[in-house]
Amino acid sequence: METEAARLHKPFDVQVEKVELPDQGTLDVLVKIEACGVCPFDVRLYKGLSTTAYPKILGHEIAGTVLETGRDVTGVQRGDKVVVEPAIRCNRCFYCLRGEHNLCLNTKWPFGGFAKHVVVPETSLHRFSAISPLEASFTEPLSCCLNGMMRAGLEPGSDVAIIGDGPIGLLHLQLAHVLGAARVIVTGMIDQRLERARRLGATGTLSAAKGDAANEVKARFDNLGADVVMVTVGTAGALQEAVGMAKKGGRVIQFAGIYPEVDIPFSARFIHYSQVWLTGSVDSTPFQFARALKLLELGRVKVADFVSHEYGLGDAVKAIETASNLSGFKVMIRPWGNVSR
């Protein structure tokens, strides 16, 4: 079976073309894609900052409707609304056996969401009914944020600083509240986004362009600093600033990837004597993916008004560029829609 897809043939070269879908096995499901979010990773692939095998169908934040099921599929049926877990783990390596599937040594990312259809194993699908496909497509990024917050070991009553006022930063903001944070400060560069953070319950916001954000965060948190600092901006400066925001014994989590890769100098003396815990966060586990969808369906994390732009498949490049230049908030591909907003 053929479908239409936006494929990256080389950096800055995306073509919408007919592609052949893989044969549907007895445990596979044919899904009509209703929505796919544009991720910063898609932007990096488009610009050649991350490597991939070409041609590559972009997009991995996928939600849609079941069209056909293999004869041995029992968990979903035609007409079900489903979100696609885009990574396939081996379930055999050291990390999978330890429950850290996000670190799997044999991870595959075979599905592309900038397309009209996708063939997916039943085990990669999660049903939903209480939210729209647009909202459900946030499951993958929210699951990654949940991994970050679990890495942070957030405790009830904690003070949290989030560097970054984009969709990922504001997903972390909502998760911080769900997990019991007492106060949350968001730093960013765009006034409208900081206002959105305040509407979502941020205790305070700071413009990163005005003054010393690290010292201001410490001052607002009883001159001690934050228990947890989440870095959702992929720059060396953001990570350096984050270390200065943490209180003694605090945790700094580098959530965003930094491209191109750079070496970042730190004061080893400060890390040692302040017992600051510095770690990273990447992807998510199947458990976190399922929990993220649950939080969306129950309305504990709200994303309905995050979508600022929707583009049809033919405008995939425009969608990527809109996400890249930060002129919108969350950008979506609607493969079957003739939309451009």
Structural key phrases:
341 residues, alpha/beta, Quinone Oxidoreductase, Chain A, domain 1, Rossmann fold, 2 domains, 7-stranded mixed sheet, 6-stranded parallel sheet
Helix content: 25-40%
Count of the separate structural domains: 2
CATH level 3 topology of the largest domain: Quinone Oxidoreductase, Chain A, domain 1
CATH level-two architecture of the largest domain: Alpha-Beta Complex
CATH class of the largest domain: Alpha Beta
Structural class: alpha/beta
Q: Estimate the mean pLDDT confidence.
A: 95
CATH superfamily of the largest domain: Medium-chain alcohol dehydrogenases, catalytic domain
Give the overall shape, derived from the CA principal axes: globular
Written description of the protein model:
It is globular, with a radius of gyration of 20 Å. The strands form three sheets. Strands 3, 5, 6, 7, 8, 15 and 16 form a seven-stranded mixed β-sheet that branches. It has 341 residues and is of the alpha/beta class. The model has no long low-confidence stretch (mean pLDDT 95). The chain folds into two domains: 2-138 and 303-333, Medium-chain alcohol dehydrogenases, catalytic domain (Quinone Oxidoreductase, Chain A, domain 1, Alpha-Beta Complex), CATH 3.90.180; 151-280, Rossmann fold (3-Layer(aba) Sandwich). Helix 4 packs across helix 10 and helix 7 runs parallel beside helix 8 (236-245). It contains eleven helices and 16 strands.
